[in-house]
Structures are given as C-alpha cells and as structure tokens.
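Budget justification aside, the reviewers requested a transparent look at the raw inputs and outputs of the sequence design task funded under Objective 1. We therefore reproduce one unedited record. The lines immediately below are the structure tokens for a 71-residue chain.
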C-alpha cells in the first residue's frame, strides 16, 4: 500500500514543530478571547490558518462563538 500525502500534509507536523510555540499560541488565544469577550456570540475569521494552531484552541476558548479558519 502506498501513502498518498500532499506536500502540505507531510509538512504540517514539521511546521508545527518549528513554529508551534505553545506559550506564544496560548498568549495569542488569551488576547483574542479578551478582545471579543464583550460579544455574546463572537465570530472570528482566521485567514491563512495553516494547521489550525490558533483556530483550534481559539474555538475551544470561545465555546459560545464561531471560528472559521481558511487556508
């Protein structure tokens, strides 16, 4: 059986390893959450979302909101 991986799929783990600073991601998610905290149902659009390094934890933090990630 052969693996059919696109370049993006094969590179995603490497990208997150190189750029996936957990402390920086957490700080960014905290800041974005604070910025929209006054909105009952916040909606966030992340353009260039890549692997979802920000969108996924942001969606978890904004349980009452909507996060759309586009790459």
């Amino acid at each position: 059986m052969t693996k059919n991986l696109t370049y993006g799929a094969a590179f995603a783990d490497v990208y997150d390893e190189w750029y996936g600073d957990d402390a920086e991601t957490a700080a960014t998610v905290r800041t974005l959450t604070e910025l929209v905290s006054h909105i009952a149902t916040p909606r966030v659009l992340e353009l260039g979302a890549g692997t979802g390094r920000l969108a996924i934890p942001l969606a978890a933090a904004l349980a009452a909101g909507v996060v759309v990630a586009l790459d």
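The chain has one domain: 7-70. The CA atoms of residues 33 and 61 lie 7 Å apart. Computational costs for records of this kind are itemized in the attached budget.
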